[in-house]
Specification:
single chain; mainly beta; 0% helix; globular
């Protein structure tokens, strides 16, 4: 199957295609992606049929992420504000919205204990995966905005930033454990 998406507008009598800048993700029978128009869309992997669509307040640049369980949850970030959304993958219902710390071009990293991402506020933000409560804003330094994703492993976050640093952060202590500054350009 193949699908095309349009904004509903026309230019020179031609329909305008909707821009999909965010990488596509596939989880549990769904193809998930966000658009520049702020649509977060779920398609059936087998048929390409649209299962649901959620309208967010701004463009989506990062990939959605999925946390299996009962209930399973999908997380996505609005780019201009960094608002984190938790969505029911079966229905598309928004379960909660977190605080928007600052512009975020990246994707949320998920684990049973934390949802984490970086932002233009030069910090890593940690949220409770069940409630969306902000647990911590871990400041880096003023030239260390985080444009990419954040990885999680064993209670630690790993991230690169604009100043060229790569760091390991203890989630529970909300503290940078080590920083590698070998890179001379943005990571």
């Amino acid at each position: 199957w193949a699908r095309e998406f349009f904004t509903g507008e026309k230019v020179k009598d031609e329909p305008v295609r909707e821009r999909i800048d965010a990488p596509v993700a596939c989880f549990d029978g769904l193809v998930l992606f966000g658009t520049s128009e702020g649509h977060f869309v779920a398609l059936d992997t087998a048929t390409g049929d649209e299962r649901w669509r959620v309208q967010l307040m701004g463009p989506i640049r990062g990939t959605a992420n999925y946390l299996p369980g009962d209930p399973a949850r999908v997380y996505i970030i609005e780019q201009p504000t960094g608002v984190l959304h938790c969505i029911d993958p079966k229905t598309g219902a928004v379960l909660w919205k977190g605080e928007g710390p600052e512009r975020c071009d990246g994707s949320p990293s998920v684990s049973a204990g934390a949802i984490a991402f970086g932002s233009c506020a030069a910090a890593l933000h940690v949220f409770d995966p069940a409630t969306g409560k902000l647990l911590d804003n871990i400041k880096i330094d003023k030239d260390s905005q985080v444009a990419g994703g954040v990885a999680q492993d064993g209670g630690f976050l790993f991230s690169g930033c604009r100043s060229g640093k790569v760091m390991r952060v203890d989630v529970k202590a909300a503290k940078i454990v080590w920083t590698n500054e070998q890179s001379e350009s943005e990571v």
